[in-house]
Write a structure and sequence with these properties.
Helix content: under 10%
Distance between the termini: 38 Å
Shape: globular
CATH class of the domain at 31-108: Mainly Beta
Number of helices: 0
């Protein structure tokens, strides 16, 4: 067996021209990715509206997510996580500019699409 040990927080770039998405695993109904942000935000007027649910965890750094229809953004720091149901329009309002924000995101198909996902 060949075990490949890696570290999600190793060799982080100080700055990036564009946000970076690294796919770590993919299964039949899920995708796990690491997202690296350094002062990035979703372009003005653009919203994410995804077919799958998304669970995101901030490992380091900080960010704000804005959900359509909500009056204020949700701030996330290390250890904070949020479950985003399918088709819940959202955007990254802000990520800290002076250090990397590392996200872990799981995109998945809920077992019961009509449920609130337990969130």
């Amino acid at each position: 067996m060949n075990i490949n040990l890696q570290n999600l927080l190793a060799n982080l770039p100080a700055t990036l021209a564009d946000e970076r998405f690294d796919e770590l695993l993919r299964g039949r109904d899920f995708r796990l990715e690491r997202i690296l942000s350094t002062g990035h935000a979703t372009p003005g007027g653009q919203w994410y509206d995804q077919e799958q649910a998304e669970w995101v965890l901030v490992l380091c750094g900080s960010a704000q997510l804005l959900f359509e229809g909500e009056p204020a953004a949700v701030e996330l720091g290390p250890g904070d996580h949020v479950l985003i149901p399918p088709h819940c329009r959202h955007r990254v309002q802000w990520t800290v500019p002076d250090e990397p924000t590392v996200w872990l995101a799981v995109h998945f198909t809920p077992a019961d699409p009509g449920s609130n996902l337990g969130g």
